[in-house]
Design a protein that fits this description.
Largest sheet: 6 strands, antiparallel
Number of helices: 29
Structural class: alpha+beta
Length: 642
């Protein structure tokens, strides 16, 4: 695990330290080592967090004759078998690191080297003879890769801050990305919040040369057909085998490996299967609890740890956004999310004991864990009611219900279902993601002239439509899972997980996102994923082999669910500091009057605008930091009233 950066240029490399500011910006991703290569036409660099081949895994790595140079961020879990085969083919290795196999595979297969890799990765290879750069990102986007083409040159880095350090002129807001963030709470590949900076999408590779320019192409996809046959027990058996293999591969390391244990289904499955099938001694597990009644999942995590005898670490904490918001925005490089503070805290705790931790990302997207998967179907049933009755009869009644309750209340669920009934297919699904944010009907109310002009003709939900409609699937549930796997998963929870763990120099691995597991999960019959209102049916069936039903039947909470209630007073302070005189409004992007109305409704309890205000709050903090030039300490001072 590390941070990588590079430049392909003739003029920029006249300065033999051009790469250094980019690497300095990535220091937390790799505090153990630093290396760089300056060649004719390109420079590559890496900041390293040493996990495999601690002494010999220095990067960049070259091939036998020094014509190819590699930098890689991530882990190749099947590197040992690949290495053995490559040695038989006559390749000579200079390290015992997992990354070096990519270089020799490239010699054998060229751009198809990615087909043999099992792991999480973002890498770049410079071919000195061809004066060509080849780069790729893993199939489900666990590792990031950002790039920018500036006056014909290419810059790339693991994080946006690396690119900004290389070229400060890139610090310009992409209004279309801002529109997408306000609409969906995600910024989907290839966009970023910076106009000139793009992220390589999951399962894509790119080539670049100064003569031919940039080319981006896809190398992998999920196929949901044909479905697996056999009994339910047989399919659960096969899933168990796939996960055991993935878990064994994910434990390959030259340093101790721990595991997050939230009390939820995914981390519980990972830990229980590890202890039964892989570990010879207790693994270290890590839980952060919240002092907030039913939202505290620490007791459930403790039960699992006791059941399997893990070496358990637990802390009960009250997060503070007043203390951490500027830091979260800085680490993420883009607007934040409540999930980020939770991930940051557990990563900080785990890093005191281990360098690597296994997490549970991916379970919801592989096995069907969100209410919207069955809600989409129910909206279809409700849509059979004549539109005139829904719109003017039922709709009028629903409008009488106050909006002041929690966003997951029954009233809001009914209104959500009602709104979706007037759409279908991909449009229904994209709207289900953004219902509690700023949909199309908000543009006229919220956006200022400058924003409206910039996003005229842009459709922020189109990226969801495309992934839904292009899925290799016949079922609407599978189409939703496809869109979530390639868009929401990498660009929201996984992005947050990567930045928050790397901010603490901790590597996180996600066995459920192993691409072989994902390929198998895609073929599982839909009724074994979502059955009526029962979500993740096949995963629950598997967990029954490991834990009693009393543990499994707990309702899903999510670590960040309690934050709006625990931190309600802090939210009020932050809303006041950042939104009562928003610079996004004074600069013409938003309307201050609309923001004031949202604030007034929320504070009075008339409407629960918490989700929408959170988006605006983080956008404003990001805008002040990255566009207006206020540093982290400046924002800390603003919050503290200095």
């Amino acid at each position: 695990m590390c941070g990588i950066a590079g430049i392909v240029s003739k003029t920029r490399l006249q300065n033999q330290s051009a790469l250094q500011p980019m690497l300095d910006a990535l220091r937390l991703r790799g505090p153990d080592d630093e290396g760089s290569y300056y060649g004719t036409g390109a420079a590559l660099g890496q900041r390293r967090l040493s996990i495999i081949d601690l002494e010999g895994g220095h990067q960049p790595i070259s091939n036998e004759d020094g014509t190819l140079w590699l930098v890689c961020n991530g882990e190749i879990y099947n590197y040992q078998s690949l290495r053995e085969d490559l040695i038989k083919r006559g390749h000579r290795f200079t390290t015992h690191s997992d990354s070096e196999v990519i270089l020799h595979l490239y010699e054998e297969k060229g751009e198809h080297c990615v087909d043999d890799l099992r792991g999480m990765f973002a890498f770049a290879i410079w071919d000195n003879n061809k004066q060509n750069l080849f780069a790729a990102r893993d199939r489900l986007g666990q590792k990031p890769l950002y790039y920018a083409v500036c006056n014909g040159d290419l810059l790339f880095a693991s994080e946006i801050k690396g690119l900004l350090a290389g070229d400060a002129s890139l610090s310009e807001m992409d209004e279309k990305a801002f529109d997408q963030y306000l609409t969906l709470r995600i910024i989907a590949s290839p966009r970023s919040m910076f106009r000139g900076i793009r992220k390589l999408p999951p399962a894509h590779s790119m080539t670049f040369s100064l003569t031919s320019g940039l080319s981006v192409s896809r190398y992998w996809d999920l196929y949901f057909e044909p479905k697996l046959t056999g009994s339910e027990d047989q399919i659960v058996d096969q899933l168990e085998e796939e996960l055991i293999e993935a878990l064994k591969l994910h434990m390959v390391s030259d340093v101790p490996v721990g595991a997050f244990l939230s009390g939820g289904m995914d981390s519980t499955l990972v830990v229980s299967m590890l202890m039964r099938h892989v570990m010879q001694e207790p693994i270290q597990t890590f839980t952060i609890g919240l002092p907030y009644g039913k939202y505290n999942e620490a007791p459930a995590a403790r039960r699992v740890a006791e059941e399997y005898g893990t070496q358990h670490h637990e802390q009960i904490l009250t997060p503070s956004l007043l203390e951490t918001l500027p830091d979260l925005v800085w680490h993420l490089d883009e607007p934040s999310d409540p999930l980020s503070v939770c991930t940051f805290l557990i990563a900080r705790m785990a890093r005191q004991h281990v360098k690597v931790a296994l997490g549970g990302d991916g379970g919801d997207e592989l096995f069907g864990g969100y209410d919207r998967y069955y809600g989409h179907k129910y909206a279809g049933y409700y849509a059979m009611v004549p539109e005139i009755i829904r719109r003017f009869g039922i709709g009028s009644i629903l409008n009488l219900i106050p909006d002041g309750g929690w966003y997951k209340s029954k009233a809001h669920q009914l209104k959500w279902l009602h709104a979706l009934s007037f759409l279908n297919g991909a449009r229904r699904y994209s709207r289900s993601l953004g219902y509690f944010y700023f949909g199309p009907d908000w543009r006229g109310k919220l956006y200022g002239d400058r924003m409206n002009e910039a996003v005229n003709g842009f459709e922020p939900e189109a990226v969801i439509w495309e992934s839904y409609n292009s899925a290799k699937a016949s079922s609407s549930v599978d189409r939703m899972l496809n869109a979530d796997s390639f868009i929401r998963l990498p660009d929201h929870p996984v992005m947050i997980s990567d930045r928050m763990t790397m901010a603490n120099s901790l590597e996180v691995r996600s066995p459920l996102m192993d691409h072989k597991v994902a390929e198998f999960a895609a073929k599982i019959p839909v009724h074994m994923k979502v059955r009526g209102r029962s979500l993740r049916y096949v995963q629950r069936r598997l967990l029954e082999r490991y834990l009693p039903k009393s543990v499994l039947e707990r309702p899903k909470q999510g670590f960040s669910s309690a934050l709006p209630y625990m931190l309600s007073e802090e939210y009020k302070v932050l809303f006041s500091v950042f939104l009562e005189d928003a610079q996004l409004a004074s600069d013409g992007y938003l309307k201050q009057s609309a923001i004031n109305e949202l604030l007034s409704q929320h504070v009075s309890g008339k409407k629960d605008n918490g989700n929408r205000l959170w988006l605006l709050l983080n956008s404003e903090a990001w805008y002040r930091m990255h566009i207006k030039g206020q540093g982290r300490e400046d924002l800390h001072d603003v919050i503290s009233g200095k």
